[in-house]
Amino acid sequence: MTETVQPSGVPSRTVFGHPIGLTNLFGVELWERFSFYGMLLILGYYLYYSLDQGGLGLPQATATGIVGAYGGTVYLSTVLGGWLADRVLGMERMVFYGGVVVMLGHIALAVLPGLTGVAVGLVLVALGSGALKANASSLLGTLYAKGDPRADGGFTLFYLGINLGAFVGPLVTGLLQDTIGFHVGFAAAAVGMALGLVQYAAFRRNLGSAGKQPPNPLPASARPKAIGIGVAIVVVLAVVAFTEVVPLAALPRVTSVVLALASIAYFATMLSSPRVTPSERTKVRAYIPLFIANAAFWSLFQQIFTVLAVYSDERMNWTIFGWTAPSSWVGSLEPIWIIILSPVFAAMWTRLDRRAPSTPRKFSYGVIGMGIAFLAFLIFAGGTGRSTPAIAVLVILGLFAVSELMISPIGLSVTTKLAPESFRAQMMALYFFSVGLGTSMSGVLAQFYSVDAEFAYFGVNGLVVIVVGLVVLALSPWISRHMEGVH
């Protein structure tokens, strides 16, 4: 450990040159992602496997659509978590309370039968993850002074924690589901989140006063209205979850429209708010093309949990020395690369400092790389049965990982740098809106996938996203100018 200058209220101790609070946020995010991805990778199978296989017997297209819509709802709920942090509780407490709600959701999936357990569990996990995700990332941003060149490296290390959890989660829950049953897999996700909460509570002191107080406290006179809005949100979620007011097959489309409209409203609110200075407003405008690029990237990447989950179950050869691994292990392949490459990228960005590519260029490279990775599946298109070797998909997912490291941790970092002071947590929620929009779109797109249409499916999706990346690359000088000094 060494001593260094930190923002006011943040302990000055460091680990590997980064604020010591990074270790606590690293740990809680690791366990939250363990539980989230461990559950998500077996969720689709639980929905469309037959009753004899322990599933619910839904149509496959409906099941993948639900997974995409659920993922989008998780990120949509970040607006509620961000608002509560900014106006009521502060970011630090929202991380803890969000984890508690996530744990309760996994317990519901483990103990409640049928679609009732799915509805209760997914609503709770969506609300809890939204609160934890928006605020853990924003809280990390407060540990670094503005302009600190260590920030990109710190977010990349934080991303390593995310992917350690994403790697181990599907291995554990998938093996338990395959050998014992789905509900035991869901229970393992609950245990993982519980471990994360214990670790976070034990080392909260490492965060000092960071995120303890809301930056824009809600006046007492406004609280009744806020409570009413909160109750209305819960009622709407309950109605959607427990009735057929929105058909299950339409959920991803509805979620995508809601996220798009909510994003437009959020941008309009920040651009018109008197609390946002002219300089901050310019930076918010520069963020718009990055938002669109991010959504395009995640619309393909999140198909790991929709199309590629089905692809893994029907097209991949998982036989290893005579033993067949669970199909859900496809979710652990890409994190292997992230674990290997994250320290490399963190060291590279720190060493390059101002000589590194600008943020808009990093975004464009990540989006283009994601499109190329999708095109790589064309090599195996037209095959029959489980003819695609798992090792080949591992290599393709290496392209996913390089693209992800070019855009995702950088997106988290630049969001904190461009955020207006009065909208710090809510700006991070807007970042997650772009991830949510891409995630829900992955559910929409998944409904068009079939083995017979693999050439068209992987080809068209890959080419469209490459075009989006090229447009961002062309706009990068304009974006950089409007970021006003943020590299």
Task: Give an overview in words.
The protein is mainly alpha-helical and 487 residues long. It has helices at 21-48, 60-76, 78-89, 91-111, 114-142, 151-179, 182-202, 223-242, 251-272, 278-301, 307-314, 333-352, 359-375, 390-418, 424-446, 454-482, and strands at 2-3, 13-15, 18-19, 316-317, 319-320, 323-324, 388-389. A three-stranded antiparallel sheet has the order 1-2-3, covered by helices on one side. A two-stranded parallel ribbon has the order 4-7. A two-stranded antiparallel ribbon has the order 5-6. A hairpin with a 2-residue loop joins strand 2 and strand 3. Helix 1 (21-48) packs antiparallel against helix 7 (182-202) and helix 6 runs antiparallel to helix 7. The model has no long low-confidence stretch (mean pLDDT 86).
Write the layout of secondary structure elements.
Layout lengths: L1 E2 L9 E3 L2 E2 L1 H28 L11 H17 L1 H12 L1 H21 L2 H29 L8 H29 L2 H21 L20 H20 L8 H22 L5 H24 L5 H8 L1 E2 L1 E2 L2 E2 L8 H20 L6 H17 L12 E2 H29 L5 H23 L7 H29 L5
Parallel strand pairs: 4-7
Antiparallel strand pairs: 1-2, 2-3, 5-6
Helix pairs in contact: 1-2, 1-4, 1-5, 1-6, 1-7, 2-5, 2-9, 2-15, 3-4, 3-5, 3-15, 4-5, 4-7, 5-8, 5-14, 5-15, 6-7, 6-12, 6-14, 9-10, 9-15, 10-13, 10-14, 10-15, 10-16, 12-14, 13-14, 13-16, 14-15
